[in-house]
Amino acid sequence: MIIELRQSFTSPQQARRTHLKTRDFGVLTKGVTIYQEYEAAHVSLDQMLFQHVNLNKTLFKKVQVLDSRFSVCDLANAQWTEASMSRVELIGCHLIGWQCGEAQFQDVLFKDCHAGFSQFAYSRFKAVRLENCDLSEVNFMEVDLSGTMFVDCDLRNADLTGTRLTGVDLRGSQIDGARVGPRELKGAIIDPNQALAIVRGLGITVKTTDEG
After folding, report:
1. Cβ 165 vs Cβ 146: under 8 Å
2. Using one digit for the tens of pLDDT, what is the confidence trace for 36-73?
3. Which of 103, 159, 171, 179 could staple 83 via S-S, CB 3.0–4.6 A?
């Protein structure tokens, strides 16, 4: 399989093309910087293991990732719009500012990832689990999160406007300041403390009869 990449330059005249064979990179290990600040479309990564690989600022449009794992990789500020990921694990990755709008995620595990300020707007999640992840300030606008599992995640100030949270268990995660209302929360599972935080976020004052 051939991946065609175009390095980003200040003018089209400076652009050059590079061809890489993915079969030569079945396992990418510590110290490797691959495709940094490169631009490519329709990249396909199948049965890949990335370990300690620097992928930040990459520009991959409509990348397809299958049966792969990213372990302690740096994807900060990468732009992977309209990505498709299936049976993928991201473990301990640096995802701050990762732009994955209009993407498809199926059978994907995010664990111990720092993903603050990431962009997932208008994406679709199916059978996705996020465990012990920093998702503060993340943009989930209009994302179908039905059935997604959040385990001990930080969702403070996340934008959940227009999301579908049917069957989503948010108990144990931090949601203070999250932009979410009754319409989005229909069918979701939350704990009493979260319910109180949401009510206060709507500008409602909660008092006992003894408080006056």
Report:
1. yes
2. 555 667 788 888 888 888 888 888 888 999 999 999 99
3. 103
Strand pairing report for 27-28 and 104-111: unpaired
Phi, psi of 22 (to 5 degrees): -65, -25
Q: First vs last Cα of the chain: how many Å apart?
A: 71
Q: Are 1 and 26 in contact (CB under 8 A)?
A: no
- Cβ-based neighbour number of residue 20 at 10 Å: 17
Length of the chain (residues)? 212
**For residue 79, which amino acid is it?**
Q
From the CB of residue 112, how many other CB atoms can be counted at a distance below 10 Å? 13
Q: What is the pTM of this model?
A: 0.81
Q: What confidence tens digit (pLDDT) does each residue in 72-103 have?
A: 999 999 999 999 999 999 999 999 999 999 99
Q: Are 168 and 186 in contact (CB under 8 A)?
A: no
Q: Which amino acid is at 35?
A: Y
